[in-house]
Design a protein that fits this description.
Length: 156
């Protein structure tokens, strides 16, 4: 564990607590979609002193737990917090009895695809045209049009 992540404090978002939209919107530009999963999911916020430096949302589904949203503010990216949040989510899902965890990301999210595979997630499916169907504005990353959702799973 590196210096910074050793000082992180993970806090569960209590029912009725202020939803950290600013962070969640970094990973998912649709507030409407965020509202469709945030209220029936578990949300953890990572703090460094009193500053929120990361968030993830875990939804328990029929046969699998899914990380619906994971985000770190730009000035804190690249310091190992994302990796720490992924580890935490996997541990929480396993403790709750799940044997598999899923995460989905855009076809254009090259860094995220790298990170998730590096952390043991394997590609299982592609939801064609997910982003073009659900988001009104075109999304471009790394010079690539974001159209499809790539699903990755990890055995816990
Ligand atoms: N591009 C290139 N490499 C990346 C990226 C990226 N966008 N993100 C992470 N990495 C690499 C890092 O270089 C590092 O590699 P290394 O271990 O070989 O040095 C590794 O992945 C781990 O990086 P961390 O520092 O742990 O990741 P970070 O704290 O930056 O968090 C995250 C990663 C959550 C994706 C962050 O970049 C972020 O919030 N991005 C914007 C929101 C977003 O895209 N969220 C995910 C959308 S999908 C979903 O929410 C289900
Ligand atoms: N990793 C990251 N970025 C890459 C890579 C790579 N391995 N290869 C190319 N790129 C990027 C370049 O950075 C460049 O991006 P930019 O335009 O944003 O600056 C872009 O892709 C184009 O790069 P070129 O210089 O045109 O590509 P290059 O001449 O290096 O050829 C190739 C790419 C053929 C993949 C070469 O790296 C290679 O021979 N690699 C080893 C063999 C291989 O993997 N072949 C493909 C296997 S799949 C198949 O054969 C069907």
């Amino acid at each position: 564990m590196d210096q910074l992540t050793a000082h992180l404090q993970m806090r569960l978002l209590e029912k009725g607590g202020a939803v950290p939209y600013e962070l969640l919107l970094l990973a998912d530009p649709s507030r409407e979609l965020i509202d469709s999963y945030i209220f029936d999911s578990t949300c953890y916020i990572a703090y460094l002193d009193q500053t929120a430096v990361g968030v993830y949302v875990l939804q328990e589904q029929a046969h699998i737990a899914e990380i619906k949203n994971i985000a770190v503010p730009e000035q804190y990216q690249g310091k190992g917090i994302g990796k720490y949040l992924l580890h935490h989510a996997c541990r929480m899902a396993k403790e709750k009895g799940w044997s598999r965890i899923r995460i989905g990301t855009g076809n254009s999210s090259v860094g995220q695809l790298y990170l998730y595979q590096q952390q043991g997630f394997e590609m299982t499916a592609i939801v064609k045209d997910f982003f073009t169907r659900h988001y009104p504005d075109p999304i471009y990353e790394n010079g690539i049009a974001c159209k499809h959702m790539v699903l990755l799973e990890k055995i816990l």
